[in-house]
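User: I'm writing a short report section on ligand binding and want a predicted complex to refer to. Could you take this sequence and coenzyme A and write out the structure as tokens? A short remark afterwards would be nice.
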Amino acid sequence: MNFTIVPLRCGDGQRNKAIRLRALAADPDAFGSVLAEAQKLSDGIWQQRLARTDMATFVATTADHIDVGLIVGAPYDNEVGLFSMWVAPEVRKGGVGGALVDAVIEWARAAGHHQLILDVADNNRAAVALYASRGFVPNGKIGMLPPPREHITEHQRVLVLGTPS
Ligand SMILES: CC(C)(COP(=O)(O)OP(=O)(O)OC[C@H]1O[C@@H](n2cnc3c(N)ncnc32)[C@H](O)[C@@H]1OP(=O)(O)O)[C@@H](O)C(=O)NCCC(=O)NCCS
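Assistant: Sure. The structure tokens for the complex follow:
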């Protein structure tokens, strides 16, 4: 499948909302956020997130202009984190997830950050393998999803970033 990775901009609030709600509905246990809460957010919130200069949101878009993947880079523990990673089931295992991760790595490095941090559930084999393929390693921090999903444990992973080329 041909796809392009593009940053969402001010004015793309509805695209941001649509793909994030689709992700939360399709793979609820991959995320700490829950669909019911996200559905309550105003259109202005989806828009405002795209206006922030300390965040970046990228989507993977097909040649037919259908958004099939999402990722967000945002502040996390005095560094920067990778959030909201999701690829539509019908296009998985085709390189979309890797391309989205690469986009956030590039964004974080260009912004001068030293580390890119993420949390991934221990039972999420696909995501763990994806992050390992990009060089993320566990840093020893262990967490869990919010109640009532505290049985889903997570290990934090970190990628140390080089200087911009
Ligand atoms: C995890 C996810 C983003 C992977 O997206 P994808 O587009 O299928 O990933 P890619 O095709 O780019 O794969 C890149 C690498 O990830 C790994 N990988 C991806 N899917 C995998 C799977 N099902 N099993 C094992 N490894 C897998 C492989 O190392 C792969 O490299 P390879 O193609 O050289 O083998 C996707 O499965 C997804 O959206 N899952 C549900 C949401 C989720 O779990 N988000 C992460 C929250 S932390």
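A remark for your report: The pocket of coenzyme A is lined by residues 27, 30, 85-87, 92-98, 120, 124-127, 129-130, 133 (CB under 6 Å). The chain has one domain: 3-160.
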